[in-house]
Design a protein that fits this description.
Number of helices: 1
Strand content: under 5%
Shape: rod-shaped
Distance between the termini: 113 Å
Order of helices and strands: H
Largest sheet: none
Radius of gyration: 32 Å
Structural class: mainly alpha
């Protein structure tokens, strides 16, 4: 009897490892996507804030009731 494992047995042993590697890669890609999305929205928010022009504070000297 040969002492080497059957070809099908080796493939079934590596299946959970492939799933874990696939999930790890998916998690890394998801984290990179979230980081890029947060960076991009921060850039947009900074641009919007810098483009807002506040009206100067002017005292109203015209009395409307007169």
């Amino acid at each position: 009897m040969p002492s080497s494992p059957r070809p099908g047995h080796q493939a079934s042993r590596n299946r959970p490892r492939r799933w874990l590697i696939g999930l790890a890669v998916l998690g890394v890609l998801l984290a990179a996507w979230v980081a890029a999305l947060l960076w991009f929205t921060g850039q947009v928010a900074d641009g919007v804030e810098s483009s807002i022009n506040l009206a100067p504070a002017v005292e109203d000297t015209h009395h409307r009731a007169d």
